[in-house]
Specification:
binds protoporphyrin IX containing FE, single chain, mainly alpha, disordered C terminus, 218 residues
Length: 218
Amino acid sequence: MFALTTPYLWYTTRATGMVTLVLFTLVVSLGTLVANRVGGRTIGRFELNELHRSVSLVAMVFLVIHILTTLLDSYVATGWLSPIVPFISPYRRVGVALGAVAFDLILAVWVSSLLKARVKQQSWRFIHWFSWLAFASAIAHAYLTGTDAKRGVGLAVVAACTLVVLLSALWRFFARPARAAGRTALSPLAAAPAGETLPATSTAERDRAARRSVQWRR
Ligand code: HEM
């Protein structure tokens, strides 16, 4: 095995950890806005949903960098499977395990969204609830494992993210609108089930269909 260690890997792990947490806070808040049917004339629910999905993609990129720099840095030997298998890291066993739990749950949410056309609406909704658990796990992971998360500005960022998501959860729970089955938008990356085609084939058609549905939902 090769040994690679430089403070820059460690700085990158710390920075990308914080950026990922902030981006996931944004993803959860935007998701709550969509779920609670917020959207007006200037920015509609379709646009909010698009933003929710785009930010989640950027968050995943930062999370992958966060994990890669951790794995490459031989100063903290966590083990190659530690990002997905909890409790096998010799370094900060519980803290890294909570990061792995968050990652596994986020992967489940992400894959189910990519396969949304093939997954039952109810199952997709159930799996999407894992995001709250993933977030709680990520917060505990940041606090237990992080260098910056325990004091000063880092702690303030973690506390602010926790507060924003806690308020989102309360708002989601208490201001829950009546269900509208089948009204959530499909991911543009979602594949149609075998033998079926998605209703709108070209980007322009999909755009028109989305705008029609946004007008209908307002
Ligand atoms: C959703 C998933 C995750 C999020 C949001 C996240 C976020 C964070 C945050 C905010 C920190 C604190 C940075 C600091 O205070 O310096 C951190 C630290 C850390 N994370 Fe993650 N993380 C996640 C998953 C993982 C996974 C799966 C691993 C496993 C390899 C991991 C490894 C680490 C390590 C080793 C540190 C300590 C860095 C240091 O020494 O300060 N993280 N993470």
